[in-house]
Amino acid sequence: MLKSKNVLLLIDAIHYxxxxxxxxxxxxxxxxGIDRLVRIPDNQTVFGLKVLGDVGELSENWDCWEELxxxxxxx
Length: 75
Known about the structure:
Elements (H helix, E strand, L loop, with lengths): L6 H14 L3 E4 L8 E4 L6 E4 L15 H5 L6
Antiparallel strand pairs: 1-2, 2-3
């Protein structure tokens, strides 16, 4: 578990942790609701990663659900 009071520091820590695990990690230039794009080497699969500072941010009415659900639309 990684925890930080600063979400930007947490995103950077996760970015470097995933890189250390051998994954390709980059910022998401087109998807503002996605913090990082994660690719498995030698694979076409791309995962969108959203980092939350507090699980209390999640709710049924969270304003980012729609944007996140549109991440994989064949692009």
